[in-house]
Amino acid sequence: MKIRKWTGIFLALSLLMTMPVFASDDLEALIKAGDHRKLEMYYAEEAKTLKAKADKWEVLAEYYEKFPDEYSGGSENVHKHIENVRAMADDYRKAMHEARDLALRHHSLIRKGP
To answer: What is the mean pLDDT of the segment spanning 98-111?
Structure first.
C-alpha cells in the first residue's frame, strides 16, 4: 500500500519537474524579438506536450474506473479520486487549447507582419 502512495507522489513530482521552468527566459527573448515563427513553433510544441499530459491523466482515470481495487485510498474515495484525475486532464486540455490558439495567432502574424 505504501508503495502505491509513494508511486503517486513520485508521479506528481516528476510531472512538476518536467515542466519547462527555464523556458520562460527563452520565451521572453522570443517575445521581445517579435519572432512569430519561433513563437508559433514554441506554442505548438507546448500544445503537444500538454495534450500528452492530458491523455496520461485520462488513461489513469480510465484505469481506476476499470480496476477500482487498485486505488489505495479505499473504495469509498475512488470515485472522488477519479473525478480529481479527470479534472487534471481537463485542465491540461484547456491549457492545450490556449497554446494552440497562441500558435495560430502567431502564425497569422507571420503572414501579416508586425
So the answer is: 92
